[in-house]
Write a structure and sequence with these properties.
334 residues; Peroxisomal Thiolase, Chain A, domain 1; 2 domains; alpha/beta; homodimer; six-stranded mixed sheet; 22% strand
Chain lengths: 334, 334
């Protein structure tokens, strides 16, 4: 496992985030391109709504990049729904080469790693990366029927109703994907589905320490280190782990799951999760901060919990993974 | 969409196929590396058995390539189970960078496309591609509880209990991955889950005609054109479609779903399907034929049906996809 440097650093030339009501009511509201307070996006089922949300995110990102879908060499997409139907129905009208991914909440980073590697190496001149999740599709698939109104434990995270899209290009004015580090599966034996942060934090630790060891960089070299969605539980764990390993991330570290909702006014327990959580924070909020120049060098580490309801019922623990993507305003330099 | 030529054509330096009872009893029996007539591979659930089958396929392929897992730059893997747990639990003990894929029955080709592109372009010097399916995990997830003994319609295919693994390397004596053509989603409105061949055939047609048009090649230029698992229904459809488009594939065309079982002695209706079907036929039978020299140039087009039980319940049609991989005994030439 090693950090892969992208010598031709692909540019993020288009980006868009589409969200539901709670995400629109949260602190990052101004940075999203589109929301639907009914969360159905004109569809008659939640599953169709999630696909539509992902399709809209792609089209908004294409419009911002002043491209038509035809100019995309490939689409990399994934979601949480069984058989990843959110992505396949979203992509079917684009008629572009399609790579379906499953990385749970790490999907947007997994797609960004693959997409930027293939653009960097000249296979595609442009590609799209997409990921989505929807509270209502996830809740009934992974937990309880929505009508049941199940109570959530304090350590549980809320699946974000959100989709994010990146358009990566060999040409462009940045920000640039400079380095990537694909993640390794880490399973520390956590079996509590209501504490995904704890299951995923060791994977984030694994990827982050490898990155710092190999590059010789330190947390303070970055404007922001952003984990996908470890939430409150995982945030505490990763901070402790990193501190014990000699890396003090205080002041530069945040988590997409903690940024998406307001802890003070929105009762979201341990924070947000789902493929759409970090996808919308990255493709909405963080890209806007790059535009404004308030960040210039960001480490994005999206974590995924690779279990299923069936694997947990069978007593298996939760495998975690964390893919790292470094995005910078500058193409070169350190 | 265009054919991508691999100038440094990665070599398939290791390959292995692990199968269940029916596959072991079929006509390709001698070409598989390992079987378990109990189909549990020492595990206590079918889901764990599928993971174990995939893990064994990886280890067998690594042993044949005289490699340890540590030498792999990445693993590309997928399966049919919800949240792709077959692959994540199979890969967790290998501790290598992991890319989870979802391409339904096209997964082995999707992984081969991504893996060979990244080896070709020097990102990884070696990587593994894995895919699996298990009749018992698929049956209860997609259709009926096993104990119910549901009757199958004549057009339905049987999910193969099988796993296949490729080890791709920048160095090696072949066979080589010479060209790839990633597939586009094609949805012709088929809604019959018991006729997946019909849903996937248009995608195979789309990919194959694009390949022949763009390269100027003809079916007879190849020793074998092999679709993933269109089965009997899809086989008939694709032959008709291709003939109408001016491409006569008779004599060089076969389908993994039709090769895996004996139509005469095994009552498998329209044939085999599942990610493991074409994975085991390619990584078992076809690689053995390359060894013996009875094929030297093969077009492998794996098809996938990207729906879910939920999308069909909601009245959606079945999106199909087909990824093409050309494997040749020669690295260069036409």
């Amino acid at each position: 496992m090693s950090v892969i440097r992208l010598e031709n650093a692909p540019s993020v030339i288009g980006y868009a985030a589409v969200v539901g009501r709670r995400e629109h009511e949260g602190p990052l509201s101004d940075d999203f391109d589109l929301h639907d307070e009914k969360e159905k996006f004109g569809m008659d089922t939640w599953e169709k709504a999630e696909s539509e949300m992902q399709r809209l995110a792609l089209n908004l990102a294409l419009a911002k990049a002043k491209l038509t879908g035809k100019e995309l060499g490939a689409i990399f997409a994934g979601d949480l729904m069984n058989q990843c139907i959110g992505s396949s129905y979203a992509a079917e009208c684009s008629h572009r080469p399609f790579f379906g991914l499953y990385g749970a909440c790490s999907t947007f980073a997994e797609g960004s790693v693959l997409g930027s590697l293939l653009v960097d190496r000249g296979v595609f001149s442009k590609c799209a990366v997409l990921a989505s999740s929807h509270f209502c599709t996830a809740e009934r698939q992974f937990r309880y029927p929505l009508e049941y109104g199940g109570q959530r434990t304090p350590t549980s995270q809320r699946t974000a109703t959100a989709a994010g899209a990146f358009i990566l290009s060999a040409q462009g004015a940045g920000p640039y994907v400079r380095e990537v580090l694909p993640g390794t599966i880490v399973d520390m034996g956590i079996t509590d589905i209501n504490n995904m942060g704890a299951a995923m934090a060791p994977a984030a630790y694994d990827t982050l320490t490898k990155y710092f060891e190999e590059t010789g960089k330190k947390p303070e070299d970055f404007d922001l280190i952003l984990t996908g969605d470890l939430g409150k539980e995982g945030h505490g764990i990763i901070c402790d782990f990193m501190k014990n390993a000699g890396y003090d991330m205080s002041g530069v570290y945040n988590d997409c799951g903690l940024m998406l909702y307001s802890a003070a006014t929105q009762d979201m327990h341990a924070g947000g999760s789902g493929c759409g959580c970090s996808a919308s924070v990255m493709a909405g909020h963080i890209m806007k901060r790059f535009e404004k120049g308030t960040v210039r060098d960001v480490l994005y580490i999206a974590t995924g919990a690779l279990m299923s309801p069936a694997s947990l019922q069978q007593g298996r623990s939760i495998p975690g993974i964390a893919h790292l993507v470094r995005i910078s305003a500058e193409r070169g330099g350190e």
